Structure formats: structure tokens, C-alpha cells
Amino acid sequence: METVYLFVNPFSGKKNEKDLTQHIKESFLQHGFLEQNITIVTPESASDAFEKAKEASRKGIDLVIPLGGDGTINKIIGGVHEGGHHTKIGLIPSGTVNNFAKSLSIPLDPDLAIDTILNGQDKKVDLCKVNEHYMISSLTLGLLADIAANVTTEEKRKFGPLAFLKDSYRILKRNRSYYLTLVDDNGQFAIKTKFLLVTMTNSIAGFPSFSPSATVNDGLLQVYTMKKVSFMKFLLHINDFRKGDFSMAEEIKHFSTKKLSITPSRIKTLILPRTRIDGDKSDMVPVSLTVLNEAVTVRVPHS
């Protein structure tokens, strides 16, 4: 690896972002990288980050490092993939949840993460195309998306995964169901569900092993639905959810598939469920998901 693009999020609000950026650059210089081959990129927006990452890939840049959480990493990896070259991804987790990094066992400590980039190994990982977007970790709609909708970046930074419990009671009390038609590898079927969750990794909302059977390059989506839920049952099962154990939650149904389409099957109101991809607001249904197997290469620790 010779050329490096380091993407910095100017809107992160973190006081140590500039210090971390300089520390990363100095670490690479100490390991023999030339200063003229290290470029610090400051995108003006999420879409600009995507375009600049795509441009970096098209130029044949060896390594791209996004500083941030899943939403930032999503844009950078999507852009690199669309660039069409074999640019590698290095991760230095600096978000509040960091699902993607955790699923790859990337250390959360910056120095250890830098060491992983410099001395680790390459691993090919899956992406998912969702309409015109990309997904690296998860898609939610319904209950889980509604709970996350009003959680601010500051709350996530302060409380971590517990921030997502803030609106749980209000959302559960509303007791809204969604009627959807799903098409997977085996055909079409209709469901009534409180939420739909699609994961590509074994971490969600910052909790490891939420989907223990999922790996980052198995070519599969893990899909979860829940037909009914009560606040007490939600609290009863929350520790199981955190451990990735759904055996005690009979209401949750699970299946795996390489592709999935989601459309509304009953529209009583003008309200359509809106999806969230990798923690950020995205399209309303209908949506179509397709796994891109081993689409990008990420630097990971030696196993």
C-alpha cells in the first residue's frame, strides 16, 4: 500500500477529531509512507463523501480510511465499490455504535485499529444494494426504525446503545402493525409485523452477536420479523436480543436469503413505513435488496 485517502467528517462534533487525524497521519509516516501520498479528504456532505470515495477508487488509490460510524463508512465503502478498482478499506472506528467494525473484530482503540491497518490482513466482505443505496450492516423498518428515529447523535454519543430505549414505551404503546409482501429466494408471501430487521453482520445497535449465524461474507441476508409484541415481553427478551438469542422469543421469525423485496400489501393510510439503513433514514417501501458477495476488501486483524 502506497497511497492513502483519509476521510474526515467535518460534522462529527468530536473535539478530538483533528488530533486523531494528525495522529493517524504521523503513524503512517513513521511506517514509511510518504507525506505526499497521504491525502486528508474533508467532504462537504454525505453525497460528496460518496463521490470523493468513488473518485479515489477510480484513481487507483491503494487505501481509503473513513473516520466515523456506520453511516459514514456506508457512504465511503459504497463509493469505493462503484469506483470499480481494488482500493482497500481501513477502519478506525469513531462512531457511537460501530456495528460494521465490531462484526470484523476491528479494535475500537485508535492505536490498535491503526496497527490492524498496517499489519493486519485483507478480508473480502459483502455489500448489499438497496434500491440505489448501499448497506453494510442493517436495514430496519417498523418498531426498531421508529425507536431510532428520534435518537440524536449527541444521545447516542452520551448513552451508547441504551439511547435507543428512550422512546421504546411510547412506540410500543402505539402498537402499530405493518402489512408487507416479501419476495425472497423461495418465493412470495405476505406478513403482518411490528418490525422487520435485515442484517448482514453479527452486531446491531452496538450489541455483538445479535445475529450469531451471520458472517460478513456468507452472501446472505438475515431477516427477522415479529408479528406481535408487548412492552413487558420486549423487556423480558431484551437481554436475549443483546446476546443474539431468539429462542425464548417465539414471536420472532427468522430466515436467510440472498435477495429480498419488500412492498406494502395493505395501505389503510397514506403512511408508508420508512426504512433506516445503517442507522440513517432512507427510502420508504417498496425496497429491493440484493447481496453483492465479497464486494470490497477490508483490513482486519489476523485471526
UniProtKB/TrEMBL annotation:
Transmembrane segments: none annotated. Residues 1-133 form the DAGKc domain. One of its GO terms (molecular function) is ATP binding. It comes from the Bacteria. Its cofactor is Mg(2+). Keywords: ATP-binding, Kinase, Lipid biosynthesis, Lipid metabolism, Nucleotide-binding, Phospholipid biosynthesis, Phospholipid metabolism, Transferase. Gene3D superfamilies: 2.60.200.40, Probable inorganic polyphosphate/atp-NAD kinase, domain 1. One of its GO terms (biological process) is phospholipid biosynthetic process. InterPro entries: ATP-NAD_kinase_N, Diacylglycerol/lipid_kinase, Diacylglycerol_kinase_cat_dom, Lipid_Phosphate_FormReg, NAD/diacylglycerol_kinase_sf, YegS/DAGK_C. NCBIfam families: YegS/Rv2252/BmrU family lipid kinase. Belongs to the diacylglycerol/lipid kinase family. This is Diacylglycerol kinase catalytic domain-containing protein. It comes from Streptococcus pseudoporcinus.
